[in-house]
Structures are given as structure tokens and as C-alpha cells.
Write a structure and sequence with these properties.
The complex is a heterotrimer of chains A (643), B (484) and C (206). By secondary structure, chain A is mainly α. Chain A has 28 helices and four strands. In chain A, strands 1-2 form a two-stranded antiparallel sheet. Chain B has one domain. In chain B, helix 2 packs antiparallel against helix 3 and helix 8 packs antiparallel against helix 11. Chain C contains nine helices and no strands. In chain C, helix 1 runs antiparallel to helix 2 and helix 2 runs antiparallel to helix 3. The radius of gyration of chain C is 29 Å and the shape is extended. Classes of the chains: A mainly alpha (643), B mainly alpha (484), C mainly alpha (206). Chains in contact: A-B, A-C, B-C.
Chain lengths: 643, 484, 206
């Protein structure tokens, strides 16, 4: 039964793919949505049995790779962490599937789209149920491919397919680290099986490996390599550049892949490997710092963007940073908790943004919106709920999880912990600010869209608003419901063996006993952020432009995303292109083709011409050739015998 | 000294063919003029060939000799003779109508072919230097004549004359070599020669005689550098004659080469394998490279056959059981590839005139898709693409060469077969991807269709029957290498 | 001793005349030198006791082949000067190739010529009788083969040269023999005093 959770989307995807050959969109939608809903139902049952009931299960499917000592199985591992992820993935995915039916109704390749969505879901489920690193890698690459296909879904659009390529290439960098990490793990543990790795981590902790003459602690190296993989997939600072561009894909894709599920794979992986990473304190510190930096970086960029989806994308990036630094201070349950709540409210925000875009005839620029809140009240309400949850207002989902993270960072009582706490608080302020900036610019003020567009503004159909409602319920209640289970005093009972924290790393436990100001600070910051946003954009509408003009260098710096793209372009892309150009012209065309295929064929032609020229047609030439042949052969023997 | 029946019975197929030939002389002379008589003689020739084949198959394939040891019948002879008979049958069968259309409908054509066929079969069964020489001459003379058959064409006469002159030269070399061999061995019989020499007791003169003999036969095989007549003769002769040249005499000459080397010189394989290797390398290279620039398909086929003979000789150069076995597999595929290819070349006519430029094949896939398919199969097979017949031939030949330590030879062979693939594939490209200016004539005689169909079936299904073919070739090789 | 003397005489003259066949300017001389070479070869055959072959050589090669050559050379209009130019052009290369070959053959076979194997013993019986004895028995196979080859030569020669031309009158003996006077003869009365020309023309026009 558990296996069905994973394979129903695959079946749906294949069927929809076949149906897409005949452009049978409606059956394809039915098949995939049904598959996902069934999968969701089963996931809920699995959650009840595995997480609440506390009975982890492993389902063996078959042998995959056996080579010498190396063995990798197809096996589905269902423990609490997987169960949580199952709920998140199938829940959001099924809502996105339903939403897509409405959102994509004007597209003429809907069957293909649904097929890709289900394929992605399958790969993601494969990832979260992985029993070993290689299978995890399989799912990891699977979601990468599906993401590529979906970002580039409108492949005729130049920007879409470049974005797809960028996402793929940047992810390859991370995947390379991940693959190296898997190799390192295999070298250290002689296995890629999670159970084996976790059981032996404490023993391996002291082992060193030699690399380039340096003696490095083995587990730290493996941990950092694996984290590089996570950075790529979860768009952490340095490897984040693909995520904003990925917004070129259809909005449901952004909601599913680039907010709720795929980008959280890195967080999931780090939490999954907690029994190993706990023995790699340096790697954890790295994770904390990178996470904290990402949180503040993305928030600053989010302040200045005008594309509604990009703002949310940077917000996602920022929230992922929170999750990482939570994991970095050993508060894995808090990371998972935020992952879950974030999935709901961020998917809600994205789908809401999609609804806005849909209403405004595919307009994405905030500067061309405004004044539509009365026309699309449901969407407006949903965006409010999402923003409140994101900003962490009390009793919304984000409040519980984000505050927990900040408290844990504070309670870590370490240098990196404090750094993360400060950055997190700043980012929380900025988050509130840009969320309300978005709300105000999108819905309030005078309409800035053309009259033609305004005339068509309409509330989305039920098939789109229904998923919004479901996700809104999640965004409101998931924090309140999950708090005690996920990060309460008895978190260990809930998570079972799936999360392991060394007794010395007590950040999570201490988080419940932090000073009151620490608990109140984020709320205060969020409130002030909202207040300033209202002042800047609703009350004194010219203020924001003045501030931007006053601090123009900083604004420019943020607006251009800290010049990451330009930097990478100069350091990596241009030299690589130039190198490739060199190899193509001088290496391939001139050297290999010149001496290889082209040179050889030219030589063959020349010899062939010579052969034809020898053939003069004169009998005595032929006779001479025969005689010379005989003489040569005879000479050979004479020299052999008498020489 | 009188001949017992048992003393001439092993030569029954040849006797039947000779008798048919003699009867046909009368039919040709008194049957009247014109196409009807030529057709009658051709049909009788075909009947004679079938009769000979039946005789051949019905006889025991145990080793036996006739005519005082000058003639040897064994499983090897049966195998090769069957190939020659099939090849000649195909050549005559599909020549009838084209010859009529070319207005060369002389009954002498079939008559000379059947006499040449007797010569070829006697070559295969040669067991004595004298019978070897006589058989070679009996095979060659009719072929010189048929090459010049189209008396009103200068090219045909030129082809015949060239072939004759160079053939005479090669006969001279063969004869000179034979006299040396006889001088040093003191006997003309293969058995005696084999017994007279060994690796340790080997006069240099004997070796020189052997080299001369091999080069004499190499001319018949058209191995480089004794190949130069081939392109001119193939191109100049009427197409039906070229078809005959390309199929049957090559098999007989290779068989004779096997007889001579494995039989008479069997005890000094180390020596002749070097000559054969040199011939093989030269033929493979010349055949592959020479064909590329050709514009006439008959000329291209000439180079192609030079290369094929080079590959066959590569197996021979191994000098082992495996090598002879590979040669036999190779020749089997060669006969069918040749028959199939020429079935199509013979139908290459436009406005009643033979049109044999390669460019004339343009767009064949649209005007005559079945023939284009057939020619494609033939070309793929010649290029050695699995699982077609040509692949197995090359495979076993190279395998033998490698196992005998002739790795460089095999490497050259493989490299050159890549070059060869170029011009075979070019034909396919021309047929399938280029548009024709004017389609070829659509009126195709049934005989060509039949020959093409059978050849295609054999080449496509070669792998299915591979086991039985291999069994037969194996038995034949054993018979070839059996002591006298 | 005397045998050796004759051997060297015949052999020497034969070689010299062979060279002359190739180098002499007038083709008629060439053919005559060829005849001389044949005669000397026949002499060599006589020396080893093969008198039948010697006679055969004289009868066939001198009597038939060489005479035929003479006819051909005299009847065909061949530009010998042109041929000679080509000949001189290739003479050096030909000499080198030929020289190497001769040198090699000499080197290879010097000393152990024919490995001490003796020539077949010449029997008491005259070799014409001897040949007659084996030609139709032991070598019947080769004899028959030779017959076939000659048949091929005949057919080939006829088929290559026989052309049916329109307007050529042939002699058909059977037809000639079958003719009766009544079919071809007509007796015409010629009245005296009148010219027969009219009747003749009338006949021709029939």
C-alpha cells in the first residue's frame, strides 16, 4: 500500500504522457488528479500509522545495483520524517494539480503539463522515501529533470528555455558536490545505506582523510560536500541564481517546485543526515552561516524587485535560509517544522499570485497592478492570510515555526548561532516589509493597469480558489496543530529515530527557555516592518522612491541582486564560453577534424586519385606492373634465402 | 592401360557438361540464326548446369581421384563446384534478355560459358600441374572471347584484347613457375610435390617457382598488383559478361589457389603465406581506395571485387584450417552478393541503352523501390554490416588472420573495410537521397527478379542457415587439408 | 663433348636470335629471327633425345605459326616507328626489371640447379612410339582437355570474326548442288537478224 503512494503519480504521469500524444487533455487531467488525490489519501493514512502510531516501515522493491562490495537497493523508507514530507508533497502537489486545471485552461498542451507535474511528484516522493544515498540521488536528479522540463514548459519563449537551462546547469554544480559527497560517504562507510551510515557515524567521526597533502576530518568533508548538493537544490547563497529565473515557468510550477517541495529537498537531506552531521560540527557551522547569509541576502533583494513572482521567489530563498540555519544549530525538528508550514503558506502565496496574474491577463509587474482588491476578494483574502503567515504574525503558521527557529538560534549560545539570530531577526523585519509592499502595490492604490486589462479583471473559478482555501487552512492552522508534535518537549517521541541530536547540542530544548524579549522581538520587528511598508506605499506614496534615490548605491546593489549574475557571468560563464569556443575552433575543428575525419578523408581521396591515375589503360603499363610485382616478390625470397 | 568406370566417374559433372557443350555446338551451328536459337542454346545450357549440379549432389563426397590421379574429387571440390555452378547459372540465366536487348544474341555466348564452366570445375579439382594448367587455359580462353563479344564496340574489343594479352602473360608466368616446381620436385602431381619438399629441405628455385605460380593464379583472382586488367575489362565488356566475370571465375581461381597452397605446397605454409599476405594487403588497399573515385558502377564493382579477393586472401594467408574455412564462407557470401548486385546492374538501362553510371541510380528508391531495397541489402552486405552474409565472411576471415598472428593484416583489413563502406553507402545515398533526372527503364526481365530475390533471401537469412553452411564448409576444409 | 659443343651452339644462337627478334628494326627480320630461334630450340630437343618434339616444333611453329606471322606483318599497316619510340621510352625500366629478375634467378638457382634431380631416362623405344603409347591412355584426360581448348579457340575465332553483312554473296554448296538446269536455264529463241539485246534485258529485269 505504501508503495502505491510513490507509484500512483508515476502511473498518472505515464498515462497522461500517452494521452498527450493525442492531445486528450481532459482525460489526462482526470487521471493525474485522481492519482494524486489517492496518493494524498494514502499519505494521510501513512502519516497516522507511521508518525502518530510510531511504526516506521521499510518496503523493499528490488535490487538495483550490485557490483563487488557495492550494493544499492530499491527500498522505500517510511519513518516520521518521510511521513511528514509525504503529507507536504502529496498535499501541495494535489492542490497544485487541481489549480493547474483552471490555470492552464487556455494552454493547448495541458496533458503534457499534467504529465510533467505528476512525474515531478513521483521523483520527489522517490527522494523523500529513499533508503540510501544513491536512491536519494535518483530522486534528486529526477526532480531536477522534471524541474527543467517544467521551467522550460513554454519552450518557445526564449527566456523560459534559458531559465530552464540555467536551473539545470547551476544544479549540476551542486549535484557534483552531492555526488562527491556520496563517494566520500561510500569510501568512509563502505555503504550508502542510511542505517549503516547512521550506526557508524560516531565511530568514523575521528577518521581523517588525505586530500592534496592536507589531512582533513573525513566526516566534515563528506558533510560539506553533501551540503553543497543541498545548496544547489535549495538555492542557497552562491547557488541561488537559478531560482528567480525559474519563475519563467507556469505559476503552479513555481508553487509546487520552487516553493513547497523541490527546493526543500536540501533541507530534508540535511535533516535526514542528522545522525551523521551531528558528528561534523564544522559542517554544521558552515550550514548555519550559509543559511543565515541567504536569509538576509534574499530578503534585501526581495525589497526591490517588481516582478510579483520574483519577490515571492526571493522570499522563498530567504525562508530556506531560515531552515538551514535551524538545521545548522541542530534544531532539525524546527527546520522540518518550518519546512512544513512554509510549504503551505508559500504555495498559497504563489497560487494567489498566480490568481492575480490570471486576473490581470498575465501581467506580472507590480508597477502595473493596484486597485483590484474589490474585484478579486477571495484572492485578496488568501494573499493576506499567506502574508500574515509569512511575516509570522501570532497564531498563523509562520509564527510558530519561525519564532521557534529564531529562539533555537539564540539558544544555541554560540557565535554562529548569535550571528544567525541577528540575521534572522533582520530578515524577519524585511520579510514583513516586502510582504506588505507586495500586498499594497498589487491590490491597493489607483489601478495602474490599462483600462482594457482592468475591464477583464475577474475572480478565478472555483477550481482555482478551492486549492487556495485548502492551503489557507494549512497556512492558518498547521503551526498551531504541529507545534507540540514537531518541536514540543516530547519531539523525540514524535520523530523517533529519524532525527538524532547529540545531547550536547541542546538548542532546541533550550529554545523553550529563552528570555521573553527574544520571544517578542520577531513579532515586534514584523509589526514595524508592516507599519513602515504601509507608511511608504499606502500613506506617503512618494516616500519609497525618495528613499531609494537617497540610498541609491544600496538600492542599486539590492535591485541588481548583489550582482551575483554579473559576477558569475564574468568569472565562469564568459571564460567557459571562450574556452569552449577555443576548443571548438582550434581543438575540434582544426586539430581533431583537421587531422582526423577531414584529414583522413582528404588523404583517402588523394590516394584514390593516385590509384585511378595509375590505371592508364595501356596494356604495357599493366604488364609492367605485373612484372614489377613478380620481381618484388621474388626479390623478397631471394633476399631471405641467399641474403 | 584402360580406364575403369570408377576411374572417370568422379568427373561425371564435368563429363556431363562437356557432352552438353558438344551437343550445343551442333545446336548452335544448325539451329538457325537469330535470337530464338541463342535463347534455345542458353536454356539448354541452363539445363546442362542443373544436370551437372544434380550429378554433383548425388555423388558421394568421399575423397577420390580420377584419370590417374590428375583429378581429385572431394567435399571441398563439391562445395566450390556448387558455388561455381550456382554463380554461372545465375549469370547465364539473367543474361538472356539483356543480351537480346543489346543485340549480341549469339548462341556462342552460352556455349563458351559452359566450356569455361568445365574449365573452372576442372581447376577446382586440379591435382596435377598439368591438369592445373590445362584447366586454367580452358577457363580463360572462352572468357577472353566473351569479353570481346560485342564486336561492333571498340571498348568491348579492347577489353577482350587486353584481357587476352595480360592473360597470356600470366599464363606464361604460371607455366614458368610450374616448370621450376616440376624441375625441383621431379614430379607434376600435387601429392608428389608435397612429399618432395619440406621447410628444412627447400631449394630456392622451388620457392621462386612457387612465387611465379601464385602470381599466375593471382592474375585470375585479380589480386593487386595483377589486378589492372579488371576495371578495364569489367567496364568494357557487355554487362552480362561482366556479371559472369564477377561471380564464377573468382570462386574457381580462389579454389585453385587453395588447392595449390594447401595441397601441393601444404608442407611449406610459412613460405607462401607471405606472398599471399602481400597480395592480400595490396588488394585490400587498392580495391578500397580505387573504388572511391569511380563513376561507373561496373568499374566500381571491379575494384570492389579486387578488395573482396583481398579479404579472401587474408583468410588464405593464415594458412590454417580456420583460414580456409573463412575463405569458403567468404566466397559463399561473395557469390550471392555478386549475383544480386549484377541482377540490378543488368537492369540499369535507359531508353533501351545500358546506363551504368553510378549517377544513373539517382532516385531509384522512388521509381523502383524494390530494386533499390535489393541493392541496398547487397551494398550493406558488401560493406560487412551484420547480420548480413558479408559480415560473416569478413568475420571468419579476420578471425583466422588474428588467430594466426597476422594482426597487422587484420587491422589493415578492418580499416580499409571502413573506407570500403564509404563507397557502398554512397550508392545507397544516391538511390535514396538524390532525385533522378530520368527514371531507368521499368521493363525488367523475370530472371533478374528471381536472381535478385534468391540472393536477397540468402543474404538476409544467412545467419539463420549459418550452422549448416558452416558444417559444409568445415567438412570441405577437412577434405582440402586431408593427406593425399 | 660434342654434345656439349652443340648444346652451347644451339643455345647461344637461340638466345642471340631471340634478342634480335626484339631489337631488329624491320618486323620481317624479327619474324625470320623467330624462325631461327625455333630451329635452334628444335636442335636442343634433338640433343636430349626428344626428336618427335623437335619435328613438331619445326612443323607447327616454323611451318604454320611463323608463316602466319609473316603474313600478318606484311599485310597489316603498322607504324613501327611509333611503336619503337614507346619501346625506347620503356627500355631502361624494362632492362632494369628484367636484369634484376635474371640476376635473382641465377643467384637463386646457381649451384643447386634442380637439386641434383636427374632428367627422366630416355628409353630405347623411339619417343614417337612412347608418346603414342601414353597420349591416349595415361594422358587421355589432358588430351581431351586440349581438344576442348582447341574447340574453344575455333568457336572463339569464328564468333569474333564472322559477321553477317548485308549484300554479301555467299557460296552455299548444298543449294548449288540442288539446282537443276530447268530452274536456272531458259532457252530463248533468237530470231536471226534481230538484236538479242531486248530479250537479254527483259530477262535481267525478271
Amino acid at each position: 500500500m505504501y508503495a502505491l503512494i510513490v507509484f500512483l503519480p508515476l502511473v498518472g504521469s505515464i498515462l497522461a504522457g500517452l494521452l498527450s500524444l493525442n492531445n486528450q487533455d481532459r482525460p489526462a487531467e482526470l487521471v493525474t488528479v485522481t492519482g494524486l488525490l489517492l496518493s494524498l489519501l494514502l499519505s494521510v493514512i501513512a502519516f497516522a500509522e507511521v508518525a502518530i502510531g510510531g511504526t516506521p516501515v521499510t518496503v523493499d522493491i528490488g535490487r538495483w545495483i550490485v557490483s563487488g562490495d557495492f550494493a544499492a537497493q530499491w527500498a522505500l523508507r517510511f519513518d516520521t520524517m518521510t511521513a511528514v514530507m509525504l503529507i507536504v508533497v502529496t498535499g501541495v502537489s494535489s492542490m497544485v494539480h487541481i489549480y493547474s486545471v483552471g490555470y492552464m485552461s487556455h494552454d493547448n498542451a495541458r496533458a503534457r503539463f499534467m504529465s510533467y507535474l505528476s512525474l515531478f511528484t513521483f521523483a520527489m516522493l522517490m527522494l523523500v522515501t529513499a533508503d540510501n544515498l544513491v536512491q536519494l540521488f535518483f530522486g534528486w536528479e529526477g526532480v531536477g529533470v522534471a524541474s527543467y522540463l517544467l521551467i522550460g514548459f513554454w519552450y518557445k519563449k526564449e527566456s523560459a528555455h534559458t531559465a530552464a537551462m540555467k536551473a539545470f546547469v547551476v544544479n549540476r554544480v551542486g549535484d557534483f558536490g552531492f555526488a562527491l559527497g556520496i563517494l566520500a560517504v561510500y569510501v568512509l562507510f563502505d555503504s550508502v545505506q542510511f542505517d549503516v551510515i547512521f550506526a557508524q557515524s560516531s565511530l568514523i567521526a575521528t577518521t581523517n582523510i588525505e586530500f592534496l597533502g592536507q589531512s582533513l576530518p573525513a566526516l566534515e568533508v563528506a558533510g560539506i560536500l553533501l551540503f553543497i548538493g543541498a545548496m544547489g537544490k535549495s538555492a542557497q547563497l552562491g547557488l541561488h541564481t537559478w531560482l528567480p529565473d525559474a519563475m519563467e515557468g507556469p505559476t503552479p510550477v513555481s508553487a509546487l517546485i520552487h516553493a513547497a517541495t523541490m527546493v526543500t529537498a536540501g533541507v530534508f537531506m540535511v535533516c535526514r543526515l542528522s545522525p551523521m552531521l551531528e558528528y561534523a560540527p564544522f559542517a554544521l557551522d558552515v550550514i548555519t552561516i550559509v543559511g543565515a547569509m541567504t536569509a538576509i541576502f534574499a530578503a534585501t533583494v526581495g525589497l526591490t524587485q517588481f516582478d510579483i513572482k520574483r519577490v515571492i521567489a526571493y522570499s522563498t530563498c530567504s525562508q530556506l535560509g531560515y531552515m538551514f540555519f535551524a538545521a545548522g544549530v541542530s534544531a532539525y525538528p524546527a527546520a522540518m517544522f518550518h519546512l512544513t508550514t512554509h510549504a503551505f503558506f508559500k504555495a498559497l502565496l504563489f497560487l494567489g499570485a498566480g490568481s492575480v496574474i490570471h486576473a490581470l491577463s498575465d501581467e506580472q509587474d507590480l508597477r502595473n497592478m493596484g486597485g483590484i482588491w474589490r474585484k478579486i476578494p477571495v484572492t485578496y483574502a488568501m494573499m493576506w492570510i499567506g502574508s500574515l503567515a509569512l511575516a509570522g504574525f501570532p497564531f498563523f503558521a509562520g509564527y510558530y515555526s519561525k519564532d521557534m527557529i529564531l529562539e533555537a538560534a539564540y539558544a544555541a549560545h554560540s557565535g554562529v548561532g548569535n550571528f544567525a539570530f541577528v540575521m534572522g531577526c533582520l530578515a524577519a523585519f524585511l520579510t514583513a516589509f516586502y510582504s506588505w509592499r507586495l500586498l499594497i502595490l498589487a491590490f491597493h492604490g489607483k489601478p495602474r493597469a490599462s483600462a482594457d486589462v482592468m475591464a477583464h479583471v475577474h475572480e478565478s473559478p472555483l477550481v482555482m480558489t478551492f486549492p487556495l482555501l485548502v492551503l489557507a487552512i494549512g497556512a492558518i492552522f498547521s503551526g498551531w496543530l504541529g507545534y507540540e508534535l514537531f518541536v514540543g518537549h516530547h519531539w523525540q517521541q514524535f520523530w523517533g529515530d529519524s532525527i538524532f541530536i547529540l545531547p550536547t547540542n541542546a538548542a532546541l530544548e533550550n529554545a523553550h527557555h529563552v528570555p521573553t524579549w527574544v520571544k517578542l522581538l520577531p513579532i515586534g520587528l514584523a509589526a514595524s516592518g508592516v507599519a513602515i511598508a504601509v507608511l511608504c506605499y499606502a500613506v506617503f506614496t512618494g516616500l519609497s522612491a525618495k528613499i531609494a534615490a537617497l540610498f541609491w548605491p544600496i538600492h542599486l546593489f539590492f535591485f541588481n541582486k548583489w550582482y551575483f549574475d554579473e559576477l558569475y557571468d564574468a568569472i565562469f560563464v564568459k571564460p567557459a564560453v571562450r574556452l569552449g569556443h577555443f576548443f571548438w575552433l582550434r581543438g575540434d575543428r582544426d586539430t581533431i577534424d583537421g587531422f582526423g575525419p577531414d584529414g583522413v578523408s582528404a588523404l583517402v581521396y588523394r590516394i584514390s586519385g593516385a590509384c585511378s591515375r595509375i590505371q592508364t589503360g595501356f596494356v604495357f603499363h599493366y604488364a609492367f606492373a605485373m612484372l614489377i610485382g613478380v620481381v618484388v616478390l621474388v626479390s623478397w625470397y631471394v633476399l631471405r634465402f641467399k641474403g | 592401360m584402360a580406364f575403369e568406370l570408377a576411374d572417370i566417374l568422379p568427373a561425371l559433372p564435368e563429363i556431363i557438361l562437356s557432352a552438353v557443350a558438344l551437343v550445343l555446338v551442333l545446336v548452335a551451328a544448325y539451329g538457325g540464326d537469330g535470337a530464338a536459337n541463342a535463347r534455345r542454346v542458353a536454356h539448354l545450357t541452363l539445363a546442362g548446369i542443373v544436370l551437372a549440379a544434380i550429378a554433383l549432389l548425388s555423388m558421394t563426397s568421399a575423397q577420390s581421384t580420377a584419370f590417374g590421379g590428375m583429378f581429385r574429387a572431394d567435399a571441398f571440390a563439391d562445395y566450390m563446384k556448387l558455388l561455381v555452378l550456382m554463380g554461372s547459372f545465375a549469370a547465364v540465366f539473367m543474361s538472356v534478355t539483356p543480351l537480346e536487348r543489346d543485340d549480341i544474341n549469339k548462341p556462342e555466348f552460352s556455349l563458351l560459358v559452359i566450356l569455361a564452366l568445365v574449365g573452372m570445375m576442372l581447376m577446382i579439382s586440379a591435382n596435377d600441374l598439368m591438369s592445373l594448367y590445362m584447366a586454367v587455359e580452358l577457363q580463360s580462353l572462352p572468357l577472353y572471347v566473351v569479353a570481346a563479344m560485342r564486336t561492333n564496340s571498340l571498348r568491348s574489343s579492347e577489353a577482350g584484347l587486353k584481357y587476352f594479352l595480360l592473360g597470356a602473360l600470366s599464363s606464361g608466368m604460371l607455366l614458368y613457375g610450374a616448370s621450376l616446381v616440376y624441375g625441383f620436385a621431379g614430379t607434376t602431381s600435387f601429392a608428389g610435390i608435397a612429399a618432395a619438399v619440406s621447410e628444412t629441405d627447400l631449394p630456392a628455385g622451388f620457392i621462386i617457382g612457387m612465387v611465379f605460380m601464385i602470381t599466375g593464379i593471382a592474375f585470375k583472382v585479380s589480386a593487386a598488383p595483377f589486378h589492372m586488367w579488371t576495371p578495364d575489362v569489367y567496364e568494357g565488356s557487355p554487362s552480362p559478361v561482366t556479371a559472369l566475370f564477377a561471380i564464377a571465375p573468382k570462386v574457381a581461381a580462389i579454389a585453385l589457389m587453395l588447392r595449390l597452397t594447401y595441397g601441393a605446397f601444404g608442407s611449406i605454409a610459412l613460405e607462401w603465406s607471405q606472398v599471399i599476405m602481400a597480395l592480400s594487403v595490396a588488394s585490400i588497399v587498392v580495391g578500397a581506395l580505387g573504388a572511391i573515385m569511380q563513376k561507373d558502377i561496373k568499374r566500381m564493382m571491379a575494384y570492389s571485387s579486387i578488395a573482396h579477393m583481398g579479404y579472401a586472401l587474408a583468410g588464405l594467408a593464415a594458412g590454417t584450417h580456420e583460414g580456409a574455412f573463412g575463405v569458403m564462407i567468404y566466397m559463399t557470401s561473395y557469390v550471392f552478393m555478386g549475383a544480386g548486385t549484377f541482377a540490378i546492374i543488368l537492369l540499369m538501362r535507359r531508353d533501351g541503352q545500358s546506363a551504368t553510371r553510378i549517377a544513373d541510380l539517382r532516385g531509384l528508391s522512388k521509381t523502383q523501390p524494390l530494386f533499390a531495397l535489393g541493392l541496398m541489402v547487397m551494398m550493406f552486405s558488401m560493406a560487412g554490416i551484420p547480420p548480413l552474409a558479408g559480415f560473416f565472411g569478413k568475420w571468419y576471415v579476420f578471425l583466422a588472420a588474428v588467430n594466426a598472428g597476422l594482426v597487422p593484416l587484420a587491422v589493415i583489413g578492418v580499416v580499409m573495410s571502413v573506407v570500403g563502406a564509404f563507397y557502398y553507402l554512397r550508392i545507397i545515398k544516391i538511390m535514396y537521397f538524390e532525385d533522378s533526372e530520368a527514371p531507368l527503364d521499368q521493363d525488367v526481365p523475370l530472371a533478374n527478379k528471381l536472381v535478385l530475390g534468391v540472393s536477397m533471401a540468402v543474404i538476409l537469412l544467412f545467419f539463420a542457415g549459418l550452422n549448416s553452411i558452416m558444417d559444409a564448409a568445415n567438412t570441405a576444409t577437412m577434405a582440402l587439408m586431408a593427406p593425399f | 663433348m660434342i654434345e656439349a659443343l652443340f648444346f652451347y651452339l644451339f643455345a647461344g644462337v637461340m638466345l642471340a636470335s631471340s634478342v634480335m627478334v626484339v631489337v631488329s628494326r624491320n618486323p620481317v627480320y624479327s619474324v625470320l629471327f623467330l624462325i631461327l630461334a625455333f630451329f635452334n630450340a628444335a636442335g636442343l630437343f634433338v640433343l636430349i633425345g626428344a626428336e618427335f618434339l623437335a619435328m613438331l616444333l619445326v612443323v607447327v611453329y616454323v611451318g604454320a605459326v611463323a608463316v602466319l606471322f609473316l603474313f600478318v606483318v606484311m599485310m597489316l599497316d603498322i607504324n613501327f616507328a611509333e611503336m619503337r619510340a614507346g619501346f625506347q621510352k620503356y627500355l631502361p625500366l624494362g632492362l632494369i626489371v628484367g636484369g634484376i629478375l635474371v640476376f635473382e634467378l641465377v643467384v637463386a638457382m646457381y649451384g643447386d640447379a634442380f637439386g641434383g634431380k636427374t632428367a627422366p631416362v630416355v628409353s630405347e623405344i623411339a619417343n614417337t612410339t612412347r608418346l603414342g603409347g601414353v597420349l591416349y591412355t595415361k594422358y587421355a584426360f589432358l588430351f581431351q582437355l586440349a581438344g576442348l581448348i582447341l574447340l574453344v579457340a575455333m568457336i572463339g575465332a569464328i564468333s569474333l570474326t564472322l559477321r553477317k553483312r548485308a549484300g554479301v554473296r555467299r557460296q552455299i554448296i548444298a543449294e548449288q548442288n540442288a539446282r537443276r538446269p530447268a530452274d536456272v536455264l531458259e532457252v530463248i529463241k533468237v530470231p536471226s537478224g534481230k538484236a538479242p539485246a531486248a530479250a537479254n534485258t527483259g530477262k535481267a529485269e525478271e
